[in-house]
Amino acid sequence: MVVGTGASPALGSAVEALRQLFDAAACSVALVDEEGAELAFVAADGAGAAEIVGQTVPVGRGIAGWAAMSGQPIAVSDVQADPRFARDVAESTAYVPRAILAAPLMGGDGDVLGVLSVLDPSVDQTSDWVLRVLGTGASLVALLVEGGPSAPDGDPGPGGLDVLGRDVLRVVEAWRSGDPGGSAHR
Amino acid sequence: MTAALAWSSAFERGAIETVVALPFADVREWAFGGSTGAGVRLAVVDSGVDGGHPRVGGISGGVAFEVDPDDEQEFHPREGPHEDLVGHGTACAAIIRSLAPDVEIYSVRVLGPNLKGRGAMLQAGVEWAVDQAMDVANLSLSSKAAAMYAPLHGIADEAFFAGTVLVCAANNLPGPTYPSQYASVVSVAATPGAEERGLFYNPNPPVEFGARGIDVDVAWADGSSITATGNSFAAPHVAGMVALMRAKHPWLTPFQVKAVLHAASENSAAG
Questions:
Q1: The pTM is what?
Q2: Reduced to 3 DSSP states, what percent helix, strand and coil does chain A have, rounded to the nearest 5?
Q3: Which of A64, A86, A83, A84 is nearest to A75 (CA)?
Q4: Nearest CA in chain B to A171
Q5: Which among A38, A93, A183, B3 has most CB atoms closer than 10 A?
Q6: pLDDT above 80: residue B127
Q7: Does ipTM top 0.90?
Q8: Chain B residue with minimal CA distance to A113?
Q9: pLDDT band for position B263 (50/70/90)?
Q10: Counting one residue from A and one from B, how many pairs have CB atoms under 8 Å apart?
Q11: What Rg, from alpha-carbon coordinates, does chain B have?
Q12: Is the bond leading into B179 cis (omega within 30 degrees of zero)?
């Protein structure tokens, strides 16, 4: 796992855990800069991690950029069919995936903080359950990015950690129980 | 009907339950049969639409909202042609075109290379669609910003009463997202299956409808196609169905459209 200068070591642990959860080639976190125009990779685990951390990409480009722009998780299973992606990777020394899962990291006020990306997951993607798990993981990572779970007044409130915690438990229990949504897991 | 598995967090009660609809006979034929979407104006509020993509087959117009630090609102609208920055708006438009080949598609670009003012531009894009008297608007995007709750709620209600049906992708992230959360919109999550007109009603809202959105072959940037999954690909399937029914029955109001979608759902049984 590789964590950029100034980023929380907890982000490194998070991407390592999420990469293992999805049995993926790589997992990364990129954060939006103050101008809202670039995504900077601050933590990554797996293939290409050393190369990608510290790199920046424009928000208006690629699958991760779209997740940030739209606020929606997305999965693409043959990303190399996108000619713009192909041009981008031609300029890159990092790992070149076939499939990408991307989910926005949303701050407590609902602003987009960044993007969580999973490259070449081994889990079956023919269910939106994968995006559900990814979205839940992204919510946890967003808490880490913000430096803690508490609201300004210290009360996580009805939509805060309590709900999030139960959401996470439900997802994990369903994931482990065998058949949460058809065949979303192995 | 209880056979279908729970496939999505929006339908997570173990099975897709049967719902009782108004006593319409052959509602699918009544709503969609023989329709091409002709005469219906539909806005794709997204990252732009590549009208030149063979699967889109041209668009009828549009507007791009662009960040402008010198403007009072910090963005301004620019009418006319614009590119699709990512390919996603093109994907949505091509899905709609596949269902409703003669619908008039308008590209409303509110997603740009800068995240500043994202919620405000989304609001402005919906306002544009209402002002232009669009019959349908597809919103495969959302905001979780608490500050946008009231403004987006306001324009969603305005659209509802003005007759612009807002079809909004639900979000896989925990917690509410706007505008898919509002009762005045048609909210959609992804279901498995390859049926273009597949439709389910969820009796446990806020997500009300399920449509095709998993492993979908979609149009993308620079004339390409990719295989993608997301609620954002389910919404345009429903938007296309709404275009079909409004072409046949232009008098349908947004609440009637929702009742017809409910009755046309595969898990719906006539009461």
A1: 0.89
A2: 40, 20, 40
A3: A64
A4: B9
A5: A38
A6: yes
A7: no
A8: B115
A9: very high
A10: 183
A11: 17
A12: yes
